[in-house]
Amino acid sequence: MKIIGVTGVFGSGKSEAARMIAKEGAYLIDHDQINHDLLIKGEPGYDAILREYGKGILNGDDQIIRSKVAALAFKSEASVQRICSLLHPLIIVVEQELVRKFKRDKEHGTIVFDSPLLFESGRDAVCDHTIVISSDEEKLYKRIKKSFGLDKDEARRRLFYQMSTIEKVKRADYVIENNGTLAELKESVKSVLKRIKDGE
Question: Which position has the higher pLDDT, 118 or 157?
């Protein structure tokens, strides 16, 4: 069994790349999705965030308003670190259970982590290979605007509190530049997978 960790800054296209790897036969473990699920009422992440921020982050159905949490979390580096300290341990518990389930079900195969904080959380340590998806700044802002509706100032503020692409690239085994079309990204992903298979 091999684990490939895919990461990149907000808006880089890392999730698209991870899904492409999954379509090639890998089992996808999406840390963003785990985080999303943990914030549903009744889940441990919900309780942790509610204790931290209070009921002002809830809607009329007592569900967490994620945009409010994001606004609070991205106020400072300390607040980013605080929310990470609350949620990362919970995410890792779910991730490890999914890995164990994969091992039980399949003797061989590949797992791909879609993880925005792969290096920051130390999960690169359990990966056999790491891939960083890199993108030009203007491409990032356009994707973030299209996908999340955030203007450049807000996007820049959130990116400021993340490990930079430059630092991620230094730590990665492979780097994919994502500045073109989805078809071009797909070809780049296939090229890296071939290099991994060939032991390059």
Answer: 118
